[in-house]
Amino acid sequence: MGRLFPRVIDIKYQRILSQERSLAKAVAASVIEGRPVTAWDILIPILFLMNLLQLKRSRETFTLNFLFTKKMALEAAFSRIDGGKGREEMRDRIKEKTAAILAADRQGLYSTKIRQKQMREMDLLIDHYSRLLEAEGKDYPSLVRNAYRTRESYAAFLRELEEAEKEVYQAATQTVKTSSAREIASRMEEAAARIRQAEMGWLFP
Hints:
mainly alpha
C-alpha cells in the first residue's frame, strides 16, 4: 500500500479496517461510559475539559486494544492474498510477534493462555478477511454479501468469532482475576454482539 493510485485490494483493505475500527469505537463507547456532568464541571470548565480528554484517551486506548487481533489478522490476510504468502508462514509471523509481546510483559497481564486463545481467534479472522479481500466489490457491504452470499452463512461465522472472542476474554479474566475485569468482559461481549446484530440487519436486510 502507500501507492499514488491505490489498487482495488488496497481499497478493500482500508474499507475492512475502517469497519473494524468503527465496531471497536462503538464497543468502547458502550463499555467506557461518560459520567454525568456535575456542578463542578459547570463552575470550573477546565475540569470538564480534562474529564473529556481522559474519557477520549481511555476510549482510544480501548479501541486500539480491541483492534489488536483484528489488525494483525487483516495484515496477515492481505500478505497472503496480495503477496502470495502461505497461511502457515503468516501464522508463524503472528506467533513470533505475540511471543515477543509475551516475553516483554513484566506485569503478567499477557499470559500464554491468552495468546493461545488469540491464535484461534486470529485463525478465524485470517480466513474471514481473506474471503473479503477475494470477494467482488469495493465497499464493505458488497464484500461481505459477495463473500458470504446469505445471512445464515455470515451469522454462522459471527457465532464462531464470538465464541473465540469469549474464550479470549475468559483467559484474560482468569489472568487478571478481578470482578471488574469480569464485568468489563461481559459488557464487551454484549456490546459487540448487539452491534454486530444491527450490522447484520444492515448487510442482509
